[in-house]
Amino acid sequence: MPLVPLLDVDNLHARYGQARVLHGVSLTVSPGEVVVLLGANGAGKTTLLRAITGHVERTGSIKFAGTDITRASPAAIVSLGLVQVPEGRGTFADLTVQENLRLGAYTRRVTAAALALEISEIVERFPILGERAGQRAGLLSGGEQQMLAIGRALLARPRLLVLDEPSLGLAPTVTRAVFDTLRELHDEQGLSLLVVEQNADLSLGIADRAYVLEAGEIQVDGPAAAIRDDAGLRRAYLGY
Amino acid sequence: MSESRPVRAAANAALVLALVLVPLFFEPFRVTQFTQILVVAIAVAGLNLLTGFTGQVSVGHSAFFGIGAYVTGVLIVHAGVPMTAAIIAGTLSGGIAGALFGIPSLRIKGTHLAIVTLVLAASLPAVLSTFSEITGGTEGLRVPRITPPRGSFLAADQTRYYVVLGALLLVVLGVFMLDRSRTGRALRALGDNEIAAVTYGVRPMRLRIGVFAASSTITALAGALFAVTSGFISSTTSYMTIVGSIVFLTALVIGGRALLAGPLAGAAIAELLPAQISRYSPEWANFAYGAILIALLLLAPGGISSLRFRRRRSHPAPHVLPAPLQQEETPHDTDDTRDQAQPTTRIG
Amino acid sequence: MLRVERLSLAFRGVQALRDVTFEVAAGGVTALIGPNGAGKTTMFNCISRILTPDSGALSLDGIDLIGVRASRLPELGVARTFQHAALFPSLDVRGNVRIGADVARHASRPALPVDETLELLRLSADASRSTEGLPLGTKKRVELARALASGPHLLLLDEPAGGLTHEEVGEMRDTLLAVKERLGLTILLVEHHVQMVMSMSSHVVVMSSGEVIADGAPSDVRSDPRVISAYLGS
Amino acid sequence: MLALQLLVDGVGKGAIYAALALAIVVAHRSTGLINFAQGEFATLSAMLTVALTGLGLGVWPALAVAAAASFAAGALIQVVIVRPAMRRDLVPVVIMIGLYVCANAIGQLTFGQNPRPLEGLFPAGGLVFGGIRVQWSLIGVILLQAVVITALTLFFVRTKIGLGFRAVATAPEASRVAGIPVERMHMIGWGIAAALGAVAGVSLTNLGVYVESHMMTTVLVYSLAAVTIGGFDSALGAIVGGAIMGVVESLVTGLVPGVSGDVGILVSLTIIVLILLSRPQGLFGRERVARV
């Protein structure tokens, strides 16, 4: 494991108004690593991602690529290359697929021509987005919207891609395709990934390491394979 | 809410006593001014019934006030109806108008309800000037005022004061009893979380129409009393225009939750402060209302929370609405306030 | 007691429920499980009449529920909780429970008195506290007390263990089983915590992508390959 | 013949209602709030234009300066007053009412009570088509609105900021996640709305209305009706709704005996209530889960 992690979260606390949700969470993601975050509903997984990407009141320390981002704005965090694909995909339903992709590069200074070239590269990876370029994103199927959300995130030039339940509401075959895409991105471009996922086996299958969150605290952490093979642990924390 | 129940009861009794004694120690000009404050306090208590219980905001209560005032005034002046009967008719007219607006308010909420009530408030002066033969339009209508009963030792201004005070105390008592009743509980539940309330048997339709009607009835009563205590109403009287709604809202925000002291304190400040300012120029008074309202809402969140202008839920309400694939991200983490540290299991 | 037959519902083209059929037996604990997005909460909202299905039948002790308004359900003896403990913040703990009791009085059905309900759920000390700022575990108990005060026959619980710690989940299960015995309730619950489900239910219905994929005793469901695949994706 | 003349006049009025309605829609799309003070902001802009022409500026440059100043003022008000209030449920609604009264009072305090005319933007005179008179100013007002609407459309569709604005209007949370500066978009939206209001206010003076503190009161009511007809988020709806309200007002007050101009407000009230009851998203708006 390299000495300097890409993402270094230390003793993170987060709250929504009066309600404290995270109680001192620490986790790291190294360059090129795939990390999965598991836990039951309500354990604080989404809040953890939102705290890292600057959307929740937070205290503690978050460093990304050596920069302290604990107090940075969401826009500044995105432009550093820490990019989130939110739960429920967060596509812009009323805008076209093409416009959604253009919005991916919003935080970057890039000429129209260069952006068009980058979009065509994304479309090469996800051909369906090319076919639907002029359609409203709200009309895409769940799987297509997930591809669009990933494509849009890639246009922000991420160094770490953070995904919140990419399988939510998708049929098993579509879920598999999404995870295949993620694995490709990791293998081909060395992209680091931090994934929150219900589907423990599938996500543990692509991950190097895993954390298990319960009631706002990290309960377990270790290599993905070890967690996958520990039946007692799975029964206790993952419910299966 | 830290003081105990007996302390609060004693404070309220002292307040009532003070209110009863006031006209005996002040000159008629002041007593008349205090009477006007009590009138506004009744109107505010009416608005508080709607806003306090259901969390809805009406910008149209000036219109219900105006309906109460004009029905009373016109019946007395043009139809020779006895004053008491005219006041009752005026009050009920406002209530009926309120019930009619209660029906759309079943489906029209929040900002949309504000639009409807705003336009209602803007309509009243227009209607009044259209029917100026009866209403006097901007010229106004002189209404006979309440006079002391024969053989009474009270002066005219004192009589008027006590009539209005009696009405205010009755209204506050009614609201107090409602607050402690099953209906009051159901109303609060409905204002907090409609879906959960319905799940526990609360029927929104009846309650919403009812509370809207009750609220506007009380405010119309204030209007009726305004007509027979001030003796003059016109389409430019500020209470009949949108400024009236602002005065009521400002007083509501100032006064907060307390049932008697709230409307009184709110009405007193909302009346007296701009009155001081308007000695220099009447436009400054209007500016002051708006500015005070904005400043209060921005700077004093504590005072507002007591008003049930609640903070928007910092984590979204339960998503039981049809949204299998929600567009907006809704974290389904919930809150808990535990702090005990547990050892982390490390593997590998 | 409760029969769900061929229930279907679509939102904007997404088929949230497809021909869902199952039964809840009187006196038992039936669990509805499945991955996120499987349609469990949607199913719940259909039963509690917040949503109306496109087609299918829903009956409680032979009474057709489709024609019944949500506000009438408590009179029929159905009470529910919500995923996030939907309490009424402008009422204190006792006030919340009294809302439930108000319904019971209306239905002239025997129910636990408010004070006894508070005691049963260890809430007496918190009775006059505001519900805002209570720990989640307590909020969930208040919500359960509110439901019990309405004197239900059928209790619908939406993720009673969600967001709780390990120990709290165990407590919640024990509390539920105790009140079920004491009051003779039938329980239908949606839950993610498989361990809790397996240890307390008599009957498990598994949903995935809007369909029922397994239905039976906990031990049978647990070894069903389709269930394992839906949960683990392998 | 009378009906046709009323129709033509109605379209002119409708263009004003559409302009103010569009301002309300732009502010609503950016922050989800109905700015009840939008009409009063427009009045202040018109007053500023009068003051600037009084300093010897031509009426067109005065309008340009007033629109720019209005943009700045609208943006400033969003930042200072509206933004801090946005996080609470009903507070913004009451604040909008407070703004309404304040803006009206400021108008009276600075401009005084006496109505003053503004120099026309367009030449006097007009055309007569078979008995129907069409003033140049009426045609000019309609053309001006058309130019403004076209420019606005190009801004929203073609520019990066316009795209960001639409993204924020569709999904503010997702916009934050994508790194779009949501607060800045809110500010720009309120600025644009105030500038549109300036154009609406000055246009109204070209239809023979004098500048005074109540000039926009009824216009606001008709524009709110227009917005309700068209849907609170639909720019096209605002334009069509404005035209409908202009024609309806003109025909009702012109053809129904005994009905004066003010009762048109009651017609608006009825229309607003009926539409909110039957189709709250308006004729052009898309249904969405409540956001208010």
TrEMBL record, chain A:
Domain ABC transporter intervals: 7-240
Upper lineage: Bacteria, Bacillati, Actinomycetota, Actinomycetes, Streptosporangiales
TM annotation in the entry: none
Keywords annotated in UniProt: Amino-acid transport, ATP-binding, Nucleotide-binding, Transport
KW Nucleotide-binding (keyword) present: yes
InterPro entries, per database record: AAA+_ATPase, ABC_transporter-like_ATP-bd, ABC_transporter-like_CS, BCAA_Transport_ATP-bd_LivF, P-loop_NTPase
SUPFAM superfamilies in UniProt: P-loop containing nucleoside triphosphate hydrolases (SSF52540)
Name this protein carries in UniProt: ABC transporter ATP-binding protein
Alphabetical list of Pfam families matching this protein: ABC_tran
Residue ranges that the Swiss-Prot or TrEMBL entry lists as coiled coil: none
GO biological process: L-amino acid transport
Native source organism of the sequence: Acrocarpospora macrocephala
GO MF, any single term: ATP binding
Family membership: Belongs to the ABC transporter superfamily.
UniProtKB/TrEMBL annotation, chain C:
Cellular-component GO terms for this entry: plasma membrane
One GO MF term: ATP hydrolysis activity
Keyword ATP-binding: yes
UniProt keyword terms in alphabetical order: ATP-binding, Nucleotide-binding, Transport
A Pfam family the protein falls into: BCA_ABC_TP_C
SMART domains from the UniProt entry: AAA
Keyword Nucleotide-binding part of the UniProt annotation: yes
InterPro entries: AAA+_ATPase, ABC_AA/LPS_Transport, ABC_transporter-like_ATP-bd, BCA_ABC_TP_C, P-loop_NTPase
Domain of life per record: Bacteria
Domain ABC transporter: residue ranges: 2-234
Protein name: ABC transporter ATP-binding protein
Automatic annotation (TrEMBL), chain D:
Gene Ontology CC entries for this record: plasma membrane
Subcellular compartments: Cell membrane
Keyword Transmembrane helix: yes
GO molecular function: transmembrane transporter activity
Keywords: Amino-acid transport, Cell membrane, Membrane, Transmembrane, Transmembrane helix, Transport
Family: Belongs to the binding-protein-dependent transport system permease family. LivHM subfamily.
PANTHER family named in the record: ABC TRANSPORTER PERMEASE PROTEIN, BRANCHED-CHAIN AMINO ACID TRANSPORT SYSTEM PERMEASE PROTEIN LIVH
Annotated protein name in UniProt: Branched-chain amino acid ABC transporter permease
Species whose genome carries this gene: Acrocarpospora macrocephala
